[in-house]
Amino acid sequence: MSAIHFNDLTLGYDRHPVVHHLDGEVRSGELLAIVGPNGAGKSTLLKGIAGALAPLSGSVGVNRKATRIAYLPQAADVDRKFPISVYDVVSMGLWRRTGWLGGVGRQDRAAIEHAIAAVGLTGFEDRAIGALSGGQMQRALFARLLLQDAGVILLDEPLTAIDAKTAADLLDLVRRWHAEERTVVAVLHDFEVVKSVFPQTLLVAREAVAWGASTDVLTPDNLMKARRMLEAPDRAAERCPRAA
Ligand SMILES: Nc1ncnc2c1ncn2[C@@H]1O[C@H](COP(=O)(O)OP(=O)(O)OP(=O)(O)O)[C@@H](O)[C@H]1O
Description:
This protein is α/β, with parallel strands linked by helices. 35% of the residues lie in helices and 25% in strands. It comes from Alsobacter metallidurans.
């Protein structure tokens, strides 16, 4: 069963295409890494799946049974100046159930505490998020994802600027989601992590360069091809390759 399918999907900004004519599907329960050079369109693709960016043409569909999508944006896009505690950030994972003004019951409080404990942040509940380290903040955001209980989980560079211990802990949560048959799509730059945790990889450079088993995709030839595709002069004009 497919969890996400792309049908000639083109995404971009102000009518300038960034990701061109993507076709294919992510199987339900799959762990898929999205890799590619800077500016390849990885974050754009994740935003398209999350529904935060409408397609310029074509479509992206998420299976009805897995409609609940959780999305972790890049750390740089998260406003940490907002005066809110770890507990409140994590509890937002329950908004779908409690609503903006809904009360948090005893059961909900237990679930929030459980999620905070699962990411190793017990004792930090009252800490303002602006006073967390980058790794602690990422742990808090993963606790929120745990509560969201989504069928499809989208992670944009979840391990960037994270130390080895935190990365290992967060990858354990990804493995747990996989065991729970959730679909996880993550933008990653560390190929060793990809090869050891993510069986499937999509290599993008404004279009799909290769998509399949991670070991088949992450070859020097494919990576070189991706770099060249992004550096090609006609990219500067952001022309559609199929329109040429
Ligand atoms: N909001 C935006 N408005 C206009 N152009 C954008 C916007 N966001 C991204 N772009 C452009 O789209 C292209 C792809 O960006 P995107 O962030 O998707 O790449 P990426 O593969 O995630 O890169 P990185 O590895 O550096 O995070 C880039 O040329 C970028 O400048």
